[in-house]
Write a structure and sequence with these properties.
single chain
């Protein structure tokens, strides 16, 4: 399953990247976020791994992030692995003007584990896109209000 989402953030690209690239900010725009823990490799470098912990529906969810591409301020792509699924997420940033940045996310789910996740993906594929778009919109809101 593949899809894309995008939003326009009313900030200079450099500021968007500064906020996006700081894991301390995840708590401000990703629902249920608990912690970010670097596991191996040089932080931010291709091949490095981190653990991202969430609480979803009162259950713990640990996701391992492996950086596949990091050539910010243009692109950040990660591989995200957890018990229910595996996906890649390519984050692209384009300067539209001095104070406008287009943020595009291209997601591909490469593995779905368990019958419930497979059924949900088959019956409700829009649910996955809706969650990504929600977090992108929450990032936009956080970023545009971070300095107020």
């Amino acid at each position: 399953m593949k899809f894309s989402c995008n939003t326009v953030i009313m900030l200079p690209k450099a500021r968007v990247i500064e906020l996006f690239n700081n894991p301390d900010n995840l708590v401000h725009w990703q629902d249920g976020f608990i912690k970010f823990e670097h596991l191996e490799g040089t932080p931010g470098a291709v091949g490095s791994k981190s653990l991202m912990s969430y609480k979803v529906n009162n259950k713990a969810l640990d996701i391992t992030e492996t950086i596949l591409v990091n050539n910010l301020p243009h692109e950040f792509t990660g591989l995200y692995e957890c018990a229910p699924m595996t996906n890649t997420m390519q984050n692209l940033f384009e300067e539209l003007s001095a104070n406008e940045t287009k943020y595009v996310a291209n997601i591909e789910y490469t593995q779905l584990n368990g019958i419930m996740v497979k059924i949900m993906a088959f019956l409700f594929p829009g649910m996955f896109k809706k969650q990504v778009k929600k977090w992108m919109d929450q990032f936009k809101d956080f970023a545009e209000n971070a300095d107020k």
